[in-house]
Design a protein that fits this description.
The complex is a heterodimer of chains A (501) and B (110).
Chain A (H helix, E strand, L loop, with lengths): L1 H13 L2 H19 L5 H8 L8 H26 L8 H50 L3 H18 L4 H15 L2 E2 L6 E2 L13 H20 L17 H23 L4 H16 L11 H17 L1 H7 L5 H12 L8 H4 L1 H32 L4 H20 L2 H19 L5 H23 L6 H4 L1 H33 L1
Antiparallel strand pairs in A: 1-2
Helix pairs in contact in A: 1-15, 2-4, 2-15, 3-4, 4-5, 4-11, 4-13, 4-15, 5-9, 5-11, 5-12, 5-15, 6-7, 6-10, 6-18, 6-20, 7-18, 8-16, 8-17, 9-10, 9-11, 10-11, 16-17
Chain B lengths: L4 H22 L13 H21 L1 H13 L7 H22 L7
Helix pairs in contact in B: 2-3, 3-4
Classes of the chains: A mainly alpha (501), B mainly alpha (110).
Chain lengths: 501, 110
């Protein structure tokens, strides 16, 4: 049937020797960049955009796409090994992935992440090929009210992530939202929270907050514990996961793939929301939720699959509608425009070899990445055996240069130090940092959709409840809040009753 | 409903949550802090080194400010030895040059 014909065309394009080579280079570059904390796929793709002038369009896009999901793989590597999220979506990977590493299961964690991501990538690519058109129709139903409610749901779901008190988790989310609002307001052009400093008028970059609160504060936390500079993990566990871990991770991979494929299509922070949502789901339905945050394989496998699936399906709005779903896709549009290809619904029919070649090379890219990464697991894990007092200056160097490279702004580096202090203080106070990062990323989008909805409804707040999908999402959020709050209320009541007896 | 709307109300939420947390902290069933003492030396060394790096990068160039970063940052570790710091510094300077200048062609003042 037609789909098979298209796929045949696609594979014949993707398997040509030069396209293969470009895919390989892209994946390799992407992994290296993802491993380096602070340097993300966006600046790299931006740097390499001029190269696509000389390359044929398919080759250029294939290479750029390879960099994109290569960075996802690499980002999870540093998240697991040194608790440094290289990518926004790797934040969740830190939670259980790093704990697994600390228990000596670093090899297993890296393998689970690689295999889960590969599976998710394959499935998502299939979905991309088969369901591109109908899925886009689904995303049409989402207007700004639905996006707002979805983000509220996502933020509430982040509360479930936190192992500490609900109030603290909510406070961190709100703090993250406020940090996200720093900068110039889009609608009015008025600078907010900028303290008169021009450097703050563009807002606080995610990388700075992540490096400071996760990366540098983690260094301080580690130093406080080990006076002797012992390595992060004494035991070098098996390189591959054992039966039990695979059994726990397997179903999580399936669920994560489903979540990621759906959420990735929606423009916005698809990969971030997917990984958070997957973690929440796994924690809720797990038989042993107390293991989460301490090295539960399901807590690693689900989010990893989700974010890889989302990064594949985030190509759908680009290839079918010509709408970028995130910054990387926007750069892809740039690459296509350089070759006078109009991104939009007609790309599928006017440049079929581009469309299907790109899709086929995505699957190929996932394969290349698994082949690249699984053998390298041993190498990465060896890194952990370096005594910590030799390792942490390297982390310090990469964070500092990485942050500087985002905007080539030395004020950002000073901000990094401030967030490092803040991160350490927060961890001493038992406040979870992950919800803060989610709030930071979603804050601006939340506000934009909020404003837009109210403009459309002319100030009528009830529109969030009258639109069915929006209502459904908000109800789900309410249910989640109650589900989390009521057990703790019930426990307290039991305690008081027991005390009375 | 201007640019201050959302920040204002978020601020109110945050204050409310903060009050809630404070009240809960002083109530009967809260636990006292267990764990290690705060490591002030690490805090100052790491954040201080980053600030120094940021301030000296443009004036003294990458290598000097990076060396300062590494040396001051290494002070965070209590049992630090001079030879280790110097060795680590040289290695990291070389490695950073390789990755960031030759590899990524980052436009950092040298």
């Amino acid at each position: 049937m037609e789909l098979l014909q298209h796929l045949y065309l696609g594979f014949s394009v993707a398997f040509s020797p030069e396209n293969l080579a470009y895919a390989f280079v892209g994946c390799l570059l992407g992994t290296l960049i993802g491993v380096l904390p602070g340097v993300g796929p966006v600046p790299t793709i931006a740097l390499l955009l001029p190269i696509t002038y000389i390359l044929p369009p398919v080759a250029g896009l294939i290479m750029l796409a390879g960099i994109y999901y290569g960075a996802q793989y690499g980002g999870s590597t540093t998240a697991i090994l040194v608790a440094l999220p290289g990518e926004t979506s790797s934040v969740v990977t830190v939670l259980d992935g790093h704990q697994m590493a600390r228990k000596g299961r670093a090899g297993a964690a890296l393998s689970i992440a690689a295999i889960g991501s590969f599976f998710a990538g394959c499935v998502a690519t299939l979905i991309l090929a088969a369901f591109a058109a109908p899925l886009v129709k689904l995303s049409f139903k989402f207007s700004s009210a639905e996006y707002f409610s979805l983000m509220v749901l996502g933020l509430v779901a982040a509360v479930v992530l936190a192992s500490g008190s609900i109030a603290k988790a909510l406070a961190m989310i709100v703090l993250g939202l406020l940090l996200g609002l720093v900068g110039t307001d889009v609608n009015s052009g008025i600078a907010r929270y900028d303290f008169g400093l021009p450097a703050l008028q563009d807002g606080v970059d995610f990388a700075i907050v992540a490096m400071g609160i996760f990366g540098l504060a983690e260094i301080m936390k580690n130093l406080e514990q080990k006076g002797e500079g012992a390595p992060i993990t004494e035991r070098l566990g098996a390189l591959y996961p054992n039966q039990q871990e695979l059994r726990q991770a397997g179903p999580a991979v399936l669920r994560g793939t489903a979540i990621g494929s759906l959420l990735g299509i929606l423009p916005g922070a698809g990969t971030v929301l997917s990984s958070f949502a997957s973690y929440t789901l796994e924690k809720r339905i797990s038989r042993s939720p107390e293991k989460f945050g301490r090295g539960a394989p399901a807590g690693l496998a689900g989010p990893e699959s989700a974010n890889n699936a989302a990064s594949q399906t985030s190509f759908i709005p680009l290839l079918t509608l010509g709408i970028p779903s995130n910054a990387v896709m926007a750069l892809m549009i740039g690459a296509m425009t350089i070759h006078s290809i109009q991104p939009g619904p007609q790309v599928m029919s006017s440049h079929p070899e581009l469309f299907w070649g790109l899709i086929a090379s995505m699957w190929l890219g996932n394969l290349i990445l698994v082949i690249l990464n699984l053998p390298l697991v041993g190498l990465w894990v060896k890194l952990l055996k370096i005594p910590y007092h030799l390792l942490f200056p390297a982390i310090l160097v990469f964070c500092a240069i990485g942050v500087f490279s985002v905007n080539l702004n030395d004020f950002d580096v000073v901000l990094l130090a401030m967030f490092a202090i803040a991160g350490y203080v927060l961890s001493r106070l038992n406040c979870e940092a992950a919800p803060l990062l989610l709030g930071l990323v979603l804050g601006p989008m939340l506000e934009e959709n909020f404003r837009r909805t109210l403009i459309v409804s002319r100030g009528d707040f009830s529109i969030f409840l009258t639109r069915p999908i929006s209502l459904g999402l908000l109800m789900l959020a309410l249910v989640l809040v109650l589900a989390v709050a009521i057990p703790s209320v019930r426990n307290k009541r039991d305690d008081t009753f027991a005390a009375e007896d | 409903m201007g640019p201050g709307f959302l920040p204002f109300w978020l601020g109110i939420c945050l204050s409310g949550l903060g009050a809630l947390i404070t009240v809960k902290a002083f109530s009967a069933n809260s636990s006292t802090h267990q764990g290690n003492r705060a490591d002030w030396r690490a805090l100052c060394a790491i954040s201080g080194s980053v600030v120094v790096f940021g301030l000296t990068l443009r004036t003294t160039g990458l290598f000097v400010s990076l060396a300062l970063l590494i040396m001051i940052g290494s002070m965070a570790y209590r049992a630090v030895r001079w030879k280790v710091i110097v060795g680590n510094t040289l290695f990291l300077l070389f490695f950073s040059w390789l990755v960031f200048i030759k590899g990524l062609k980052l436009s950092v003042p040298l």
